[in-house]
User: What shape does this take?
Amino acid sequence: MSRILIIGAGGVGNVVVKKCAMHSEVFTDIWLASRTLSKCEDVRLEVEQLLGVKIKTAQVDADVVAELVALLQKVQPELVINVALPYQDLTIMDACLLCGVNYLDTANYEPEDSAHFEYSWQWAYQEKFKEKGLMALLGCGFDPGVTNIFCSYAQKHLFDTIESIDILDCNAGDHGHPFATNFNPEINIREVTQVVRHWRDGQWIETPPILEDDCVHFSFDYPVAGPKESYLLYHEEMESLVKHINGLKRIRFWMTFGQPYLTHLKVLENVGMTRIDEVEFEGQKIIPIRFLKALLPDPGSLGSNYSGKTVIGCILKGKKDGKELQKYIYNVCDHAEAFKEVQSQAVSYTTGVPAMIGAMMMVKGVWKQEGVYNVEQLDPDLFMEELMNNGLPWLVTDYTGKLPE
Ligand code: NDP
Assistant: This one.
């Protein structure tokens, strides 16, 4: 018997709830709480109709520790799965500490007033979680998440030493809108407009953001999706992988973007619509990127007309038994298939399924630790098996192509 509380009833939350409900033998009691109760209720009704599983719902403002504590005291879950926004990571971790509850999330903490991504804030909770005998699992979506686990699997089974990792994230899907983001627009736009960093020979190297003419990009021939322009981008999993993959000399993250997406984003940035500071508008203060979010399609609603696939994986270069080799580990996920199963597009699906599997590893005691952990610090084998069983099959191939130097 395990009671879990999922916080955040957005695109990813919808998938996590449904996937947990499909394992009602593991997750015997499921609660969903979010800022807007009606969104939780919509998911509750769908889960009952489609899967015959009854879940419970609650309203909470996860920015307020006292509200979270009251909810945790009422629900008394074993684990909180945080799929609200990165802004709420620390308040939810604080409430978990106060109430003796384990914690899992899919994105690292970000302060609202600066688009700054690093694990330092959450790693600082290490001793507090340890002292209470609790576990916090960070970054258990796809990237971060599955990509980290692909790397730890490669470290355990495929290589003696890993010299370089290239994470390649391709969305070759078409949602039919001129411009939309696949997860929360505010978080997504903050992420892709920042200065780019990658890690080489012990230091972070900065390169221009993806909207600048001199940004770094190349065409990669993805399995199933074919050649796609892929842009160097900073992504949070690099920070933890640098620490946890032994002997790593270089790590880069690449993401595909279509020209229409980049053109729209450039225009929005040029006119100030991606600003995250307050501006005065008709006697009230507004934050332009939040106003923009209100105008854009809700990522959770994109699924019904989405076609095509996502292809996300890692190319690792290193040595085994003295021999140089390159391996490519990746997953292909189909937007329409994801919609058929859980009424969601593949980006929410590929995030929500690993969050459910991470939760399963924790409540079953397969991943049982005290303190704060990134997913690659834990044994990858059963997680990799569960990816196969839960809609995210993966492949390992030899990679013989050449990546940019
Ligand atoms: P959505 O915007 O669709 O959903 C976020 C949900 O959180 C909404 O229901 C929202 O409520 C709720 N929420 C926001 N603020 C609060 C608050 N203060 N209190 C309670 N609930 C709140 O986002 P997504 O589902 O697309 O993304 C969820 C998370 O997943 C994000 O952190 C994102 O960064 C992460 N992610 C991770 C990926 C990975 O691979 N690791 C990939 C994609 C996403 P309301 O409905 O009222 O706005």
Summary: The CA atoms of residues 88 and 295 lie 23 Å apart. The chain has two domains: 3-138, 146-343+391-398. The pocket of NDP is lined by residues 8-13, 34-36, 39, 60-63, 83-86, 88, 106-107, 141-145, 183-184, 187, 299-300, 347-348, 351 (CB under 6 Å).
